[in-house]
């Protein structure tokens, strides 16, 4: 009986170790977010699409409006990216990751966006909050919340 208990404990320990190792082997959320930003800066919607959960309840809150559904979000992103200049620059040093559970987390960070014409580019400072969920073995964006950043009072 004692040998069986020891075998069970060792087996469970090994499963926990293997699960943790598998989790550590997948890209973490900040790394995945950097790849998402690189896809945005490349202006390639087909590179952006795999980072987003493909669901009708995908949400992007932008400029005081709610955009529902992955395709609606991609269409809006594509319209922005037609400008002569488009560059998103997240401040990863200020990023805060808020775990919500084993398969979900928020990532909050400031982001500088430059877009417009070459002659007169516009520069905006945003606060970005992203709901990440682990789906199909990788981290996906389930919701994207953006607002203009204001100076701290």
UniProtKB/TrEMBL annotation:
Residues 1-24 form the signal peptide. This is DUF4440 domain-containing protein. It comes from Elstera litoralis. It comes from the Bacteria. It holds the Pfam family DUF4440. The keyword Signal applies. Keywords: Signal. InterPro entries: DUF4440 (IPR027843), NTF2-like_dom_sf (IPR032710). Residues 33-141 form the DUF4440 domain. The lineage of its organism: Bacteria, Pseudomonadati, Pseudomonadota, Alphaproteobacteria, Rhodospirillales.
